[in-house]
Amino acid sequence: MLTKLLCITLCFQILACDAFQISIKKNLHKSKSGLIGGRLENLDNNFVGVISVGSPLQDITVALDFNSSLLWVPSEECKCNEECSIPEICDQECSAHCCEAAQNDERPVDPELTGTCTHKGVFNTKKSNTLITAGKSQTFQYKEDSLTADLIYDQLSLGPKHKPAFTARNVKFGVVKDVPESYEQTQYDGVFGLAINNENKEKSVVKQLASRNLISQPIVNVWINGNQTKAVVDGLLSFGYVDSRVCNTTYQPVPLTSAENWEFNIESGTFGQLRANRSKAVINLNQHDLTVPQVLFNAIVYYYDIRTDPLTKAYVGSCPTSQNLINLNINNFNYFQDVGALTSSVGNKQCQFHLKVAEKDATQQFVLGSSFFQRYCIVLDYTGKIGFPNAVKGVFA
């Protein structure tokens, strides 16, 4: 199991090491020149971090999701395992909220959503004195299940409660009572949606902050740390600006081809003499692999004599001995993926290739995974654009 941690916290900062030591509340509305951003960490290929909600603040670990726009957190009404009703066991084996009160067995539970919050951090809505109910709910997709969140307004701090961070009141987000069985195995509590829109027309947290002029621009900047062996953190997330410490602030905006997700055109993709014509693409930081059209996949397989391992089904071939690049032309600018960055050694000069081939009828023939963003940053522009500035080299943040 991969155990990386991508920690997201948001505050005004001058240096990364000072990020959580600077109180910004009293300067929030007086100046737009301060930087808003924080450190990122990662668990099980999910980029996650700590936010806090309510008054007083309660910490919640959330995963980034680029395909949904809702911020949701589990509520104190989420079930715990039966043994948590025994005080001696609960103190040792269960999260604190399980021990504070007996479970409400009378509340109807969706029979298909039998999951628990036994080891989760939940939002105790009854303990927040700034919570306002929105009077409606929102149904959304979580993995293979359909969940329902009750929408509320409350205080949101983009960082843990013990460290001063960017804080806003009356932010709309969801609380979830019933979760699927698979939820208990995840390395996070809730989900922070970063999609540009959703079918329910509810504003994402980013759009809420931008519409209230709490961030200077409706953008999110993501930097993934390519120096993995020396990295203190796996990346940085910034709201409202491009972080010049880790990303080049000059970049070419790329228009989106969808109003619902971060989809854009790749004019062409080439490897050697072979070329894939114009195709749609998306980003997916929850996969390390690069997904490419069949023509590029075949070219790489042939060049490195790649075979499918009969046991693991992984793609294994000769390790790259020199730099060979996949060239992606996006909005008439060239971006490069080093094939070597898509490999991991399995011994005897053989490497596993972290590649996927797109289905023939797939709408998006390219999916840019986290390996691509060891060289480039991401700028999500909620006015309908995306950008990939060069990452600053030699940053170990």
TrEMBL record:
Signal is among the record's keywords: yes
Xref: SUPFAM superfamilies: Acid proteases
GO cellular component, one term: lysosome
Name of the featured protein: Peptidase A1 domain-containing protein
Cysteines joined through disulfide linkages: 319-351
Highest taxon in the source lineage: Eukaryota
GO MF, one annotated term: aspartic-type endopeptidase activity
UniProt family annotation: Belongs to the peptidase A1 family.
Record-linked PROSITE patterns: PEPTIDASE_A1
Database matches in InterPro entries: Aspartic_peptidase_A1, Pepsin-like_dom, PEPTIDASE_A1, Peptidase_aspartic_dom_sf
BP-aspect Gene Ontology terms: proteolysis
Record keywords, A-Z: Disulfide bond, Signal
Signal sequence region: 1-19
Pfam families: Asp
